[in-house]
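thought: fold this chain, then report.
action: predict
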Amino acid sequence: MTTETKKDVFYSDMLVRFSHCDPAGIIFYPHYFVMFNGLVEDWFNHALEINYADFITTRRMGLPMVNIQCDFVAPSKIGEVITLTLQLKRIGRSSLTLAVGAQLDQQKRITAQLTLCVFSFDTKRAVPIPDDLRQRLTDFQQGRLEHPWRQA
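observation:
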């Protein structure tokens, strides 16, 4: 897998595996949401340079998806290497909105808008975005965190 940050967009390549597919050999649609969750983890680790595992286990915070809107444009097939994309659209008090998608050779496969909230495992409630995370999000949104293609 390779990842890249160009300006304000994070890219990550993914092989469509047998386990992602239904009997027709195309991605079974709920797997896209699992892929998008993985994309957020990769974005944290590689673009924001915030250790996602530590965010969960040490800081005891999560980023559940609280709203999802999507359009399934074209099927993705087993064996294809699709490119997942992520762009930060909005930073709120305790939530953020992402535009995500998948494409193959510039052909859109799915586009989605995800709203994630910062959630405390201790209080079981949404909490304000921590200052260090807010700064990295702002830097990413303003295109200040470019990283060339690299193996993840």
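thought: worth noting. DSSP finds three helices and ten strands in the chain.
final: tokens above.
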